[in-house]
Write a structure and sequence with these properties.
The protein is mainly β. β3 and β4 form a beta hairpin. The protein starts with a strand and ends with a strand.
């Protein structure tokens, strides 16, 4: 079975610490931004089918020995709104029993928006063509650097995408 691709929103519309809940192919899915990375969970708590992704975003404590603990995973844990079961957004694993209880996850990412010509095609020279390297144009260029200015390019707009 092949994956289906769903464009959710602009990355600008989903800042770190936020979420959007949407319906994809008949499933309610929560898409979360955790420190600039995107994660998707089925909006369904495995305990009693509560709308998991509507729960409070929090962190958790970890301890290596009695009497010592550390707060961790801030805004990476979603707490079920019905009974308080907690799940790691990045893995779907439950905090209390990660080996047996897990929420369904889906691949989520931010992809650069296509920037091309209006007809969707780009003018790219075919390297198999004899004139592609400009050796036959008689320009007489010396060295390996082209006589043009080059500039750094950054992606300014991205779209958050989920694959089911």
């Amino acid at each position: 079975m092949s994956e289906k691709r769903f464009e959710i929103c602009s990355a600008d519309d989903l800042p770190p610490g936020e979420r959007v809940i949407t319906t994809l192919d008949g499933f309610s899915v929560g898409v979360f931004n955790v420190d600039g990375e995107y994660f998707a969970l089925k909006n369904d708590c495995p305990h009693q089918r509560a709308p998991l992704c509507e729960g409070k975003l929090t962190g958790t404590t970890v301890s290596d020995e009695p009497g010592e603990y550390e707060w961790t995973s801030d805004d990476q844990i979603v707490q079920c709104p019905w009974h308080g079961w907690e799940f790691d957004i990045t893995t779907g694993e439950s905090v209390f029993n990660p080996h047996k209880v897990k929420a369904k996850t889906f691949e989520a990412t931010a992809e650069a928006e296509e920037a091309g010509q209006s007809d969707g095609e780009r003018d790219v020279p075919d390297p198999s063509m004899p004139d592609a390297d400009c050796s036959s144009c008689g320009s007489g260029l010396d060295g390996s650097e082209p006589p043009v200015d080059t500039y750094d390019v950054e992606v300014e707009r991205e779209t958050v995408v989920v694959y089911l």
